Recover the amino acids of this structure.
């Protein structure tokens, strides 16, 4: 006799709750209600709230990485080209809810809220490790610096889109040479 609820079910429910209500609203109880079980079942798979939030972040990050991997192609490319390929993929309206969650994490980390103060730097390191091999930069130290610059440019546009709207972000992308429109 198997378990009625699997870890994948719990994680999918947690992602749904986070998308609908934000990460700060994510709780064992909300996830349990989403799948029709009790809190203890969720805790069995995710012993701490940090484990639950970390798994949600990993899932959302993997979704974004799959989207970007398609836009980037197989071969490493120059940093400016990478940003030019990333922006149209990330500027789609359906990607905005994911970035709202990422900015929520960053905001909570900035004020020292646990576990976000640990998760946000780890998330940054994971993104850098994923980006670096996709950059056509020979020197490893320079490659890391370029990966940081790529993230800064993209995240700046995404933050602008979140706060000022998509038209403002598109205009900034245009004058930055990332798009013709």
């Amino acid at each position: 006799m198997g378990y009625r609820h699997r870890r994948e079910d719990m994680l999918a429910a947690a992602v749904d709750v986070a998308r609908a209500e934000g990460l700060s609203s994510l709780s064992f109880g909300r996830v349990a209600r989403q799948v029709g079980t009790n809190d203890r079942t969720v805790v069995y798979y995710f012993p701490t709230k940090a484990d639950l939030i970390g798994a949600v972040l990993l899932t959302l990050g993997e979704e974004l990485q799959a989207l970007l991997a398609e836009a980037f192609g197989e071969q490493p490319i120059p940093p400016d080209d990478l940003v030019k390929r990333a922006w149209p993929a990330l500027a789609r309206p359906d990607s905005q809810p994911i970035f709202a969650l990422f900015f929520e994490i960053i905001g909570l980390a900035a004020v020292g809220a646990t576990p976000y103060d640990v998760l946000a730097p780890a998330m940054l390191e994971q993104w850098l490790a994923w980006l670096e091999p996709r950059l056509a930069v020979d020197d490893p130290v320079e490659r890391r610096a370029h990966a940081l610059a790529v993230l800064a440019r993209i995240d700046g546009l995404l933050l602008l889109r979140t706060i000022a709207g998509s038209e403002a972000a598109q205009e900034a992308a245009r004058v930055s040479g990332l798009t013709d429109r």
User: Anything to note?
Assistant: The radius of gyration is 18 Å.
